[in-house]
Every structure is written in C-alpha cells, then in structure tokens.
Specification:
Elements: E1 13-22, H1 26-35, E2 40-44, E3 76-84, H2 89-99, E4 104-111, H3 117-121, E5 126-128, E6 132-136, E7 148-152, H4 164-178, E8 185-189, H5 195-202, E9 207-211, H6 215-227, E10 234-237, E11 248-254, H7 257-262, H8 264-270, E12 271-283, H9 287-295, E13 300-306, E14 310-316
Parallel strand pairs: 6-7, 8-9, 8-11, 9-10, 11-12
Antiparallel strand pairs: 1-3, 1-4, 2-3, 5-6, 12-14, 13-14
Helix pairs in contact: 4-5
C-alpha cells in the first residue's frame, strides 16, 4: 500500500513489544507505539479468536468485521507492536511502565521477516473476472482454458488477486479493455506486487510505471513483471507522486480512502484527457465522498464494483 510518509529500507532487526493493559488505556497505548515509529500494531483479546479457526484475528481492516469491532468481554487487552531497531528493548520497557502503571510488558528482538509468507504459502490459483487466472509462481494449473495467466511470486507486497480491492480493479480493467482500445500508458500508484500494472500490460497496454515507497516491494513488482514477460515495458520508482510524474491514459490508485482524498488533485492531474482513473481500497462508508470529490474535479463516474464492504470505481476524464 502506498502512503506519503517517508520510508527508508526496512531495518535488519526489530523490537517486538507486547503489552497488556486495561481496556481504557488501549487507544493511548496504540498512539504511544505509533508515535515511536511502530510499523504495525496488533490487538488481541479472547473474543477475536471466535472469528476464525486459526487463533486471534490480527487484521486491522474494519471491513472484515462488518465495520464494528467484536466486543471485548474482559477488562484487559494485549497490544503487540514492532518498532524498528534493537535499541529499544530495555528503554521501551521502562518508558511503557512509567507511562502506563501496572502494564505487563515483554520485549524481544526479531529479525526482518516476510510477515505475509505463511499465508501466501497456502495461496492457490485464483480466477479473477472473466479473463485472468492469477497463479503463484510454480503452481500453474494444467487446464487454464482461455484465461490469461498472471504469475506472482509469494512475497511481502500487497496485491494477490484474492481481496476484493484488487479483484474490483482487475474486473474494471477488463471492462475498459472490452470497451475499445486499451489505454497506452499506465500508472499504478502504490503498485505493491505490480498486479494491476502487469494485468494492463498483459491486455496490451504499451508501458506502465509502478510507484511505491520501499525498494523491497519494487523489487518484487519487477520480478513479477519479468515472470509475466512484460519486464521491458514496466518501470518502477520510489519517487512520490507529483504533477511532474507525467500524464497517463490509465491510472490505478488502490490505496485507502483518506490517501485517495489527499491525492485527489494530483490523481486528476496525472490522468490524461480521455483517460481512466481507477480507485479502490475504499470502504462503502466513503463511497459518496469519493464520488463527489472527483466529480467536482470534472471527472465522470463510469464504472463501479461493490461487495458487502468495499467499492472500486472508475472515472473518465473528458477529452476536451
């Protein structure tokens, strides 16, 4: 996922801090971790385990909880965070105990890891829309029918074709391709695995630029492009999106609603006249605001895909 925060290469080691506090201190503790550079925060309490068979739910996506957190039947909550570098093992523990009297704290040093690897090892070939078959590298099915194979390496990058935020974009892409000549130049903001840009290239777009902030993610995107035979037409960059990025016939922004709103002017600017802007990562509660924001900038809503929680949409930019 793409955001505008400055991001350096991932550190070789992290401090994992696990703290148990009273429920009333939950928000303050999460803020304490984030203010100290935590890359992620995981919440655990007993009722979360009832939502699946594999233990506590660790996703922060409220859409997976029908926009409401499960009730915590207890008086405590466990918050686990990962802070860059090994130097906060003891300092962090003392600071936490001073800030939150009675807190139970455990810290340990962990190496850099592929946080998504375990889940991705079990990831299977997935049919997406009417034309794509998304395949983990090395798991190509015998019978692909008439579908276009889109190969991905199981890595750390976001975008595997299994979540609606990605599926919706690929389905919209198919419809744009079916409406006439597929746009030539493609921009994928927050490219992650590169799946959207690669999908467009497989449907005969001429070239694509993928933007993301971490070199490791961009390396994965380039690897995926090469796996699909489109590496020579796919360029990546860690530069932030600006008006100087250029103009593109097809722009993808599978982000989150607030980032999309923050980037509304520039996303409109980089979409060429007569081009398409495809937006996703939007919870239904933000749908109307997103539509109003981009229609007020002269774009026309042209396509929309929804499920129970998410919406993906495309806007057309007038030719004149």
């Amino acid at each position: 996922m793409y955001n505008e925060a400055v991001s350096d290469k991932a550190p070789a080691t992290w401090t994992e801090v696990t703290a148990r506090v009273a429920v009333g201190h939950r928000d303050a503790l999460v803020a304490w971790f984030l203010n100290r550079g935590a890359s992620g925060v995981q919440e655990e309490y007993p009722s979360l385990g009832t939502l699946g068979e594999d233990g506590p739910v660790v996703s922060g996506c409220l859409g997976e909880w029908d926009d409401e957190e499960p009730d915590n039947p207890g008086t405590d909550v466990v918050i686990r965070a990962w802070i860059p570098g090994p130097g906060v093992l003891n300092v962090g523990k003392v600071a936490l105990q001073r800030t939150f009297p009675g807190v139970e704290v455990e810290t340990r040093e962990v190496g850099d890891r592929n946080w998504n690897r375990k889940w991705l090892e079990d990831w299977q070939t997935t049919s997406v829309g009417q034309r794509f078959l998304v395949c983990p590298a090395g798991k190509v099915p015998r019978d692909t029918g008439s579908r276009i194979l889109l190969h991905l390496t199981p890595g750390m990058a976001f975008g595997t074709g299994t979540h609606f935020t990605t599926v919706g974009c690929l389905e919209i892409l198919e419809e744009i391709a079916g409406d006439g000549p597929l746009p030539g130049r493609v921009l994928d903001v927050g490219t992650g695995s590169g799946i959207l840009a690669i999908g467009a290239l497989l449907l005969r777009s001429s070239e694509a630029l993928g933007l993301d902030l971490e070199d490791d993610i961009l390396n994965e995107a380039r690897t995926n492009a090469e796996l699909n035979g489109v590496g020579e037409r796919f360029v990546t960059s860690a530069q932030a999106l600006t008006a100087g990025t250029g103009r593109f016939d097809l722009v993808f922004a599978n982000l989150i609603a607030q980032v999309i709103l923050d980037l509304a002017d520039i996303l409109t600017h980089v979409t060429a006249r007569g081009g398409h802007l495809v937006l996703s990562g939007i919870l239904l509660c933000h749908e109307d605001e997103i539509i109003q924001t981009f229609e007020s900038r002269g774009l026309t809503l042209s396509k929309k895909k929804r499920n129970d929680d998410w919406v993906a949409m495309a806007f057309a930019k007038p030719t004149l």
